[in-house]
Amino acid sequence: LLFSELLADFRIWETGNIFLMDDQGVVIANMRERVVLERDSFAERGKTNPEDKSLVKFFENMTQGERGTGFYSYQGVERLGAWKKIAGSVMGWTVAVAAPLVEGPIVQAQSGVLVSGGIFLICCIVIVVFISRGVAEPFQKLEKQNKYLTELNEEVAAANKAKSRFLANMSHEMRTPMNAIIGLSELLLGENDLKAEVQENLDKVYSASVTLLNIVNDILDISKIESGKFELVPVDYDLPSFINDTVMFNILRIDEKPIVFNLSIDENLPSRMFGDDLRVKQVCNNLLSNAFKYTREGVVEWRVSSERDGDSVWMTFVVKDTGIGIKPEDMGKLFSDYGQVDTRSNRKIEGSGLGLALARRMVEMMDGQITVESEFGKGSTFTARFRQKFVTDVPIGREVAESLMDLRYATRRRDSRAKLARVRLPYAKVLVVDDIQTNLDVACGMMKPYGMQVDCVLGGQQAVALIRKAEVRYDAIFMDHMMPEMDGIEATRI
Ligand code: ADP
C-alpha cells in the first residue's frame, strides 16, 4: 500500500503535506508524490540553507521526543508542523504533518495567526496520531520481514561456510585412502608377472582413482578459496622445465585420437620467473586437458608468450582447439562453480565442472583473467593472461624454444608408469614415520626397487626411540607432519 494512496482523502489547508521521515531527517514518502525521487533531508537543508535555519531546531526536537509540534521555515516559507514517531519502528521512522502559516483561515489578522495556528496544531496532532497508527502496521510488518531476511541471510552465509569447512575436511580425509589405492595399485602394476586380465583391471582401478583424487583435490581447492584460506605459494622457477613438464604430461591425453598438438613458444620468454608454478601448471593443465577432452580430431594448439611490465611479467597462454565448441548461451556459465554445460551431450566425458572455475579464480589471484572465444561445432580458444614477478632478462633463446616445440614429436603414447631402470642403493638406510599403516606400505613398496634398507614406524615416539637406540644410522628419515601423541615437528626437534 503506497503512502500517497493511504492518504488520498486528506487535505491540509491548501498545500499542506503529510510525510514519512527516517531517523536522519530524510523524507521517505509524502502524500503528494507516489514516489519520492529527490533526497530531501530536513537536517541537511537546515544546515545549508540560511533561510531554513529553523529546521535544525525543529529536527533536533524531533529526534528527542516521541511526539511534538512547532514552527519552522521551509524554502523560506513559515510553517506549522506536528510529528510523532511510529510505534515500534526499528528504524526510527516518524510521521509528520505541516502546512504554510499563510494558508491559515484568519491569517490577515495579526492576532488571528496565533489562534489559527493553535487550532491547526491541535488538528495536526490528532491527524498525526491517527496516521502514525495507520501506517505503523504495514511498516512494522515490513521491518519484521526485513529483520527476518537479514537473519536468514546470516544463517545462509553461516551454512555456506559450514559446507565449505565440511568439504575441506572431507576432501582432506579422503585423500589418505585415495593415496593408498593409487599407491598400492601402482605398486602392483609394477610387478612383472601379472596376468593380462589382472593388469587391465588394475589399470582401470589406477586411472579411476587418479580421476577421483583429482576431483577431490578440486573440491578441496574450491572450498579453501570459498573459506578464504587459499594462498599462493610463489617460488623462483625455470620456465623451460615448466613448459617441458606440461607438454609431456598433456601429450598423453591425445591417446589414440587423430589430433596434432602444435606448440608456439616465444624465444623471448624469460628463462626464469617468480610465481606459484604449481598453480600456473594447474591452470595450464586444465585448459589443455579440456582442449583434448572436448576435441575428437584436428588440432590443439598451445601458444606461450610474455610481456615485461616494470618488475612484473605478463604471461599469456592461448589454448586453441578444433573441438565441439561451446554454444553462445552456455558461455556465461563456463566459469561458475560446478558449471558443466550441455550436460546431456557431455555425459560420457568425465569431469567435475570445477576446473574452469578454479582456473579463473587462480588467474584472478595473479591479477589476470581468462577469456574464451568459441564457435559451436568448430572449436574454442581460451586465453589466460596473468602476472608473475620479473627475475631475469635472460631469454630462453631460440635453441631452447625450438627444442621445446619439437617435444610434440616425442613418442605420444608413453606408459606413464613405465618400468624405469632404477639406481640400486643397497647401502642406503631409510626410516619412514607415519601413523597410517597403508601409507607405510606404499612408501616401503615404492622404495623396494632401489634395494634400500627401509624401516617403518607408526609414530613420533617410536621413531625417537629407534634413533636413540642407534643400532642403525639412517641416511634419510621421511617424517609425517600430523600424528597423534607426538607429531613430526616435535619428533624432528628431539
Ligand atoms: P569439466 O571438469 O566438466 O571439464 P570445466 O570447468 O573444466 O569442467 O569445464 C566446464 C565446462 O565447459 C565443461 O563441462 C565443458 O562443457 C565446457 N568446456 C570447457 N572447455 C571446453 C572446450 N575446450 N571445448 C568445449 N567445451 C569446453
Most strands sheet: 7 strands, mixed
The total count of strands amounts to 15
Structural class label: alpha+beta
With helices defined by DSSP (H or I, 4 residues minimum), what is the helix count?
A: 12
N→C terminal distance:
75 Å
Order of helices and strands: HEEHHEEEHHEHEEHEEHEEHEHEHEH
Cofactors and ligands present?
adenosine-5'-diphosphate
Question: Based on CA inertia axes, which overall geometry fits?
Answer: elongated
Poorly predicted regions are 411-417
As a percent range, the share of helical residues equals: 40-55%
Beta-strand content estimate: 15-25%
Mean of residue pLDDT?
A: 85
Gyration radius from CA atoms, angstroms: 37 Å
Structure report:
This protein is of the alpha+beta class and 494 residues long. Helix content is 43%, strand content 21%. It has helices spanning 3-6, 42-48, 54-64, 110-189, 196-226, 239-251, 277-293, 355-365, 397-406, 437-447, 460-469, 488-493, and strands spanning 17-21, 27-30, 67-74, 77-85, 94-100, 235-238, 259-265, 272-275, 298-309, 312-321, 369-375, 379-390, 429-433, 453-457, 476-479. Strands 6, 7, 8, 9, 10, 11 and 12 form a seven-stranded mixed β-sheet that branches. Strands 2-1-5-4-3 form a five-stranded antiparallel β-sheet. A three-stranded parallel β-sheet has the order 14-13-15. Helix 5 crosses helix 8 (355-365). It starts with a helix and ends with a helix. 26% of the residues are buried. Residues 411-417 have low confidence and may be disordered. Adenosine-5'-diphosphate is lined by residues 286, 290-291, 294, 321, 323-326, 334, 339-342, 346, 351-357, 380.
